[in-house]
Records
---
Amino acid sequence: MNMLIFLIPIALFLGGLGLFAFLWSLKSGQYEDLDGAAWRILEEDSRDRT
Amino acid sequence: MSCCAPGTEGSITGQLPSSEELALSSRIVGPGLRQTELSVPQVHCGTCITAIETSLKALPAVERARVNLSTKRVSIIWKEMVGNEPTDPSSLVKAIADATGYDTHLFSDGEDSGEALQRELIRAVALSGFAAANIMLLSVSVWSGADASTRDLFHWISAMIAAPALIYGGRFFYQSAWRALRRGRTNMDVPIALAITLSYAVSVWETIHHGQHAWFDATVSLLFFLLIGRTLDHIMRDRARSAISGLARLSPRGAMIIGKDGSREYRAVEDIAPGERVAIAMGERVPVDGVVESGASDMDVSIVNGESAPRAVRAGDALQAGMLSLTGSLVLVATASARQSFLSEIIALMEAAEGGRARYRRIADRAAQVYSPAVHLLALLAFLGWGFFGGDWKQAMLIAIAVLIITCPCALGLAVPVVQVVAAGRLFKNGIMVKDGSAMERLAEVDTVAFDKTGTLTLGKPKLVNLGSATAAHLAVAAGLAAHSRHPLSKALTGIASGPVPVFYDVVEIPGQGLEARSPQGLYRLGNRRFACGDSGVDTSAASSTLEVILSCDGKELARFLFEDELRPDSRAAIDELAAQGLSSGILSGDRQGSVSSLASRLGITRWAAELAPKAKAEFCVSLAEQGHKVLMVGDGINDAPALAAAHVSIAPATAADIGRQAADFVFMHESLEAVPLAIDVSRQAGRLIRQNFALAIGYNIIAVPIALAGYATPLIAAIAMSTSSIIVIANALRLNRTGHPNRHIATATGHDARQTGEARLA
């Protein structure tokens, strides 16, 4: 019973972390262009332009 | 990887948006910065992305450019001024065209509301998924026998997790249920809203009284499953809509107005008043109804009234909005504003015609009409029965709520959307967009198919039919002349000539007549008989179905070219397949009798009607509906729009007029007409699977309801029963991806060919 006091908050916190990460990735537009991302990884980095 | 290299396209077919239109539609995003959204439907690989982005970023005016491959859009932020020079936005479009050869279209704004709702739904799914997973974990330990104090603690934690999920995720169902109830109707969302609310309330009550059974897990997982169904439904519609709105707009956004003092000004179409003079250049569409003041041209009227032959116009002739000037420039005096133009007449007809579709109620709603009163009655009977005969009213209420939870249409809520999403995905792969799920249900019921002629059964492109009769030398001369014109017959002539073509420098195009060139051999003329051979000839082309072009030298006929409208690939096969599926086909055309009858006999269609006005087409559909037929209308022109709206369900090709595309339920992107039988076939399969899913869900209820009525439904049983039924329904829906493969082999083989040509044209 005693360990539940910290185990349950930890479990909920980890779950919440996952939820937050998903909502953040949604908001930052990572699902906007799923097809494009697959191609962009093949591109060479343009150091001069970034 | 040369697919998107410049030059592979041949020539750019479409018209690029003008600088005025681009400036008109751009959005101010910062001081001196504007944003333009362009749709480039042919973007399809990584090289395209790099080519477009590098060419745009090389321009000094471009601040940021990004290609989105999923939506096939380019978003550009550009500076209004570079140094002291104002930027010409058409240089952006030109950069894309130069780098890839692709057509660009302006993307109309104001499509964001659907996207916002989709985000809300996905967030709700995420939140309820989080809640469902955590509560389920806590419930597992309760079921495996936690002692009383731990159980109470877990119940309290569950209650606290469930509450926000219920409010955040459940609001979609509450709002929809409330809207239905206020209009005195019920839909699937009424029992859903009732079940999740009651089960939550009774669980909290149980928790307060240290009860053994709490339903938080059932409540939230129910919500989770139903939200998935709702989100899928929405994504399907959104994807189709954004794909359709990315297509080229055929109606102009603005036009060049000539002021009284001769000044020129580019203005939005809505701001053109009657009496103003509008300049129409070669290759532009007429924005409003008007009368030609000066100039002459051949007009492409196919999209307005279905006539395949271009019409020659000169000063004094009336023009309707939507016609395309092919060979000359015109000055037009507007006779009506955009709001009173031909197009708005059509819109009024469409609103009047909207019949069967508005009355149609979706399968899920019809099921809910029977299902939800039955469920509520059953719960009430259980409550009264256990109350009177058992005497324990508290237990009676618990059993009644258990009945409500266990009968909650979890599987029913998924049964329809999952099947329709899978079916829409299959159609999407074949280049067919579905506007919404109800369209698929309606398409499955169809028994009669009505086709438009020009642009639907045919491509609206003329094809030379007597290739053998002219000598190669004459053909080469004709092609050399024709290269100077945009007239569709000229384009067809240039297209077929192979080998070296003589070059003419001094070519004059006489709108409505033909082409004329001086050469050492004499005066060549290419055009209609009266023009080419002097006044002696009789104009025969108006009466027959074929179009005639004469090549003459000094008034002496050298060669005669006959053209016919080119059939859409696989038309014949598609019509035969429809007949094999037990559907009768007919043609409703606005074109002349002769051309319609010859086309009908070529396709083996016995029922046809020609020279129909837009209103007559719609009335024809209505009269068929009154005889009890369910009509599918396939059409593309502005004149088809009322019929598309009046029919039970409608399909339009991607090349259709904007208004036709918006009125249609399905839009197909490839050239082949095979799309029509394929769409019907998939819709019928989807209909079968939906009925199976309903049968499965009802079968589940027949087993589960007696358990609930007997008072044995614990939260554990509810959780197992509901999840299993949902999974079975989803698994059944996924069968659609595999069913029908053997008997679709021929169709996909021919469809593949068509796709090849379609892509070859695009790539």
Note: Chain B is about 50% helix and 20% strand.
---
Amino acid sequence: MRSFRLRKARNLAWTAICGLAVVAALLPLLSLLWLVVSKGGAGLSPRFFVDLPAPIGEPGGGVGNAIAGTLLMVGMASLLAVPVGVGAGVFLAEKGDGKVGSVVRFTTEVLSGVPSIVVGIVAYGLVVVPMKRFSALAGALSLALLMVPPLARAAEEFVRLVPSTLREASLALGVAQWRTSLRVVLRTALPGLLTAVLLAVARAAGETAPLLFTALNNQYWNARPDQPTASLTVQIFNYAISPYEDWHRKAWTAALVLLLLVGALNLFARVLARGRLRGAR
Amino acid sequence: METARPMSMLVRPPEAAAPAAVAGEAVRSTLAPAPKLVVEHLAAGFGRATVLRDVDLAVPERSILAVIGPSGCGKSTFLRCLNRMHELVPGAWARGKLLLDGDDLNAGDVDPVLLRRRVGMVFQRPNPFPTMSIRDNVAAGLRLNGIAGNHGEIVERCLRQAALWDEVKDRLGASALSLSGGQQQRLCIARALAVEPEVLLMDEPASALDPIATAKVEDLLHELKARYTIVIVTHNMQQAARVSDQTAFFYMGDLIEVGPTDRIFTAPRKQRTEDYVTGKFG
């Protein structure tokens, strides 16, 4: 009877410790959200999403061009990174047990450890220097370089999750290897792959350092990939380091917009992931 | 094959030395005209390990061969050699002849993909495609191979052959995963039938099923026998005795004995076979 009480007390103590750990993990996130919403929420208005930035001293102004620039560059980066990253992941999962596979895996690991500012310098050297101008293209390339390694690893994981019995079922029907990979394995892993892509996109949308000296910034609308382009993150950075109160407030509001954007993407990824779990059951 | 041959499997006799007519007792004992599937000097393994030694046997057309033996005796490897799924495992190898209607399908220049359309397979655990409906699962072999035609008709015929039609005819568009385990296994049988194979391999198809579902699958085997040549691996000796015409007993990678099922179970010629079928080990 005594040992039973002791056990109960221990159980309670450990449950309490785990609960505290959860609170400690959630606290920074919640306080961050609270800070951004409380400081940036006031400046939020429909016009903020569509207007150009206003010069200092003028009322109004928004980050419309920066939202468009972020979407443009993240979109271009995805076009570059998704086929390469997912393709590499499928290769690693299907044929990655040999020497080539371990080299590719090691490379993606090293690449994902490279600081984003270094990736920015690489894109600067590869695109900005030869073109002699900052451009959305350079920004997109640096974002793509950052997206590929996590995409490849996530894609590999999701493709490996596909049970080998499905692959065997397809092969036993006399379906060729490549068709099996494409129409059975990839098809089954598709919701997971979509999740991986969306998470990579969300991460790229939040990058600042690689854009600082590739896409630079732009005070006006721009749709040309060979021109300097605004982005939400760089806009936040510029507003935040400025000496003006008004711009500081705008930085908070732009940060809130970015959070909303990334949050919406994450939520979308979650919904897709749930679809994957349902499919696996 | 009377006794296990010497185990020096590292030295294989050259192809030419193998006489073509090692049909064995199996064929003599039945009156079937010509064997559908003949295996000659089949050996298989992984890397340096040999898991199957010098197997010779023949399966007459439209009959059921049951393969029995204790765990690890090589019976699954044997089955997977018959549609060359064995060689998909890295490091796996298989030697010997695999004659289907007299054509050697184990030859290096034969595409295993074409072999697998003639030799279908049903696996131990039901493995329907989770992203596809019941209908699409049955038609998967046709669709994935890009074969056009009236799939609806084929789907109905195969589901009827697999004794599943009445249970699913009203919900062909539902996910295959909405079916019970036994239904899923019959769906997998229907899927294998849809590509119109000549031989059907079954790797313990009822081991993951409850007794009622097992009985359904066994009944089904009797009906399928009218059209297909079937090789079934089973752990369950009663099942082998119930469903098969011939039984092959494997032990430690050797084919110990093969013959009519009645005789294997009532008057086995080898001591090991007798010990196994009477339950002394295994």
Note: The two ends of chain B are 22 Å apart (CA to CA).
